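> call design_seq(struct)
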């Protein structure tokens, strides 16, 4: 984040006003909760010129308050949890909705030294105020400690922190709602994917987890942003959603499919496209591309449209490598699990044929990490119900 002042210097009234205006502008357009809390914590630290700022939010289900945002030496990226029914300052503020100002923290019985004991930070003075939404419901607690000039927090500090809390309360509540909706969307996607995969996968959850991780790592290795890589990761479980429309006698057939059966099998890409077409969310738009085109091949010999090279959406080119690799490495009713290194060699050998060479090159970069995912998978799994089908001949791999 941009530095607004030299370390330990005083801010003028005009500088504080400018920070306050910027504070309102920045938090009003940030919907990612972790990022929002980080912005709030950094701004409060600068405006009040304190050694530490910690933002606690209620976790009603666990009857706790938690914080991952602690500005100041010793607690960066550390999660702190305190009981909501405890006797400490944070718990009391969260329960009563009242401000607590401790000029000498160690002399007050309400102060807990637990956090100080695991860091090299010593709290001298502390100010804790409730974080409320527009209806007055307490969402959490703002806590600041140690003014840089060594003085105790005064009424002006309390007023500034209360004002910031008023701005922040609504933004945090909106971000939490957005996060809840996002989590619900991902859970729905995952359960739809389980429905599609459950019928012909021995371990559906492992399969979905593996292809999600591989897709994410591939996207990063290809130079995509973390945000875009996350979208690909979250969309990847839906690539085979069209299988819900296939009959069991085809989907679960242990032997090689007849030409007529294979044509029916290929239609799962069409069904998947129909299920996801017209979606408005970014993740479902990506899933639509994956569902339609994850069986297209770089050399144009795939289906359903016989797309070639970069005509195939990059999202589909990524999931193809992830899906084929995982399919080779795990047991299926018609095939035994391949050793990981043999599956890796197959992926490399299909560069420029089945797979985009750039995606294969990215797979080479991430393979050490991918290999660890399969370290505990035994190749001594149950025998297939039919003779092992060679790669490239079976319905669901390619």
């Amino acid at each position: 984040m941009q530095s607004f002042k030299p370390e330990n210097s005083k801010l003028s009234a005009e500088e504080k006003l400018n920070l306050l205006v910027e504070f309102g502008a920045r938090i009003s357009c940030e919907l990612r909760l972790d990022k929002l809390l980080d912005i709030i914590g950094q701004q409060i630290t600068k405006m009040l010129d304190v050694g530490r700022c910690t933002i606690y939010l209620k976790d009603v289900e666990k009857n706790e308050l938690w914080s991952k945002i602690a500005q100041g030496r010793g607690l960066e990226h550390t999660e702190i949890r305190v009981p909501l029914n405890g006797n400490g300052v944070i718990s009391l503020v969260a329960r009563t909705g009242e401000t607590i100002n401790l000029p000498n923290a160690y002399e007050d019985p309400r102060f807990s030294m637990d956090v100080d004991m695991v860091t090299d930070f010593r709290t001298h003075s502390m100010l804790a105020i409730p974080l409320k939404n527009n209806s007055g419901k307490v969402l959490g607690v703002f806590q600041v400690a140690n003014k840089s000039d060594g003085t105790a927090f005064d009424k002006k500090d309390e007023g500034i922190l209360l004002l910031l809390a008023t701005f922040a309360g609504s933004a945090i509540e909106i971000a939490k709602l957005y996060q809840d909706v996002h989590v619900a969307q991902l859970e729905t996607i995952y359960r739809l994917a389980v429905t599609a995969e459950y019928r012909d996968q021995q371990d559906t959850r492992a399969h979905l987890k593996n292809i999600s991780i591989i897709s994410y790592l591939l996207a990063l290795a290809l130079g995509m942003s973390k945000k875009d890589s996350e979208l690909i990761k979250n969309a990847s479980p839906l690539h085979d959603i069209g299988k819900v429309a296939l009959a069991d006698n085809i989907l679960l057939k242990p032997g090689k499919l007849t030409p007529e059966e294979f044509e029916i099998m290929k239609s799962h890409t069409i069904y998947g496209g129909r299920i996801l077409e017209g979606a408005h969310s970014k993740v479902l738009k990506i899933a639509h591309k994956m569902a339609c085109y994850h069986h297209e091949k770089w050399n144009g010999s795939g289906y359903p449209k016989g797309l070639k090279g970069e005509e195939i959406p990059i999202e589909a080119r990524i999931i193809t490598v992830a899906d084929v690799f995982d399919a080779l490495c795990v047991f299926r009713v018609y095939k035994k699990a391949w050793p990981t290194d043999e599956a890796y060699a197959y992926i490399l050998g299909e560069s420029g044929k089945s797979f985009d060479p750039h995606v294969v090159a990215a797979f080479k970069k991430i393979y050490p990490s991918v290999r660890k995912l399969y370290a505990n998978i035994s190749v001594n799994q149950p025998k297939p119900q039919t003779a092992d089908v060679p790669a490239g001949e079976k319905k669901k791999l390619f």
